[in-house]
Design brief:
Helices cover 43% and strands 6% of the residues. By secondary structure, the protein is mainly α. It starts with a strand and ends with a helix.
Length: 94
């Protein structure tokens, strides 16, 4: 497993390491200070970039102290409901 921060493009990391290496990361923690729609969009984009398989979704540097609880909840719910593509759909080689 490789953990990446929010400045690393997950799609690039997935292409570089393939599906045999799990990725952990990487939504910008500042996104959780925005609107619920921005949170859901950023979360789903992170999952989509990895195909969702072999990916542990989290924040690039942890939650900021001023993050509203409702926004943290929206992040978790968005991650739980994000569509996961079948490996053949991702175009990512092993």
């Amino acid at each position: 497993m490789i953990s990446v921060d929010w400045q690393t493009d997950l799609a690039d990391a997935r292409r570089l390491f393939g599906r045999r290496v799990a990725l952990q990361g990487n939504v910008d923690p500042h996104v959780l200070l925005g609107s619920e729609s921005e949170i859901r969009e950023a979360t789903r984009a992170a999952v989509q970039k990895t195909g969702g398989l072999g990916h542990i979704l989290n924040l690039g540097h942890g939650i900021l102290p001023r993050t509203p609880l409702a926004n943290a909840k929206a992040f978790v719910e968005a991650g739980q409901t994000a569509p996961i593509m079948a490996p053949a759909q991702t175009g990512i080689a092993d």
